[in-house]
Predict the structure.
Amino acid sequence: MSMLYLTPSIRLRRTPFSNRVDSAGAKAYTIYNHMRLASYYETPEEDYRHLKTAVQVWDVSCERQVEIKGPDALRLVQMTTPRDMSRMQDDQCYYVPMVDSAGKMMNDPVAVRLGQDRYWLSLADSDMLLYCKGLAAGSGLDVEVFEPDVSPLAIQGPKADELVCRVFGEEIIRTRFFRHKTINFQGQDMIIARSGWSHQGGFELYLDGSGYGEAVWDALFEAGKDLDVRAGCPNLIERIEAGLLSFGSDITMDHTPFEAGLGKYCHLDSATGFLGRKALLDLQEPAKQIRALALAGPAVPAINHPWPLHDSTGNIAGCISSSTWSPDFDTNVTIAMVKREHWGGGTVLTAKVPDGDRSAIVRDKFWI
């Protein structure tokens, strides 16, 4: 079997933790915001089981930050999203759908408020730095827009609190969900938030200064030896079970927040300063929307293009964007964009999977 390799290039940026990730034995990578992101270490199934029972440290530096700083920082951030940012407090993180003037999704970052005039946008996989720079320049706003030397490191799993307590102190584990506190590591202040792209609980440390990366990694692994701490990464199985959507896969620039099931973050009455407001006022009743599906049969093959969904008459009913076998739920857990007339719970559709047709049952909710 032929093998494909990545050609080394400084355009494919390393992270502050790349040496440690390689040493930990990552077996596969994907490319995310011009950086490598590990896909699994042992196998996806073994990593999944460990994530649900112990604690993992994830290099998610690829979630690049756009820093927006200055008197008009809030105005610029609000221009990009239908979520009302006006009541956000200085220790809060918000999940924010970012849209263009047509109301279509451009990114779905976590926004971190550091002060009245300073924000980070912790990005999904699409370039937003130049977009934000363009908005600032075109609108004549008094802000700086740049990428700081900040690299997130996630600590996830049921033993994450114990590990964080040992390294950063008991005060940190009292942090509420989507809130952040400041820790000091070797004389350097850094932000740590109770957040992360898993349903298992944990934290994301915003490493402030690449030179501290390996020291932070080593401190966590030294403190977590008896907790069975391991290197990990976002897990395909667990994130589909939890309904955590992947920008570029489940959500694309062709979709609105309402189609992505993110209507609760669209405050069209109060967030009046965002560019796509006029468009979204007319798009609040989507003709299709994200749904969870259970696919019958054995484990599906890897998905590298959308799989069509058909109704009982053979007409297109939607398409599948993510699917894999779940050991805990004994089915193929699946995310799909489904047309309104077919998205009711219990609806049976036919999935056109490469190895043959499969029965697909629409669920009322995700698994966890």
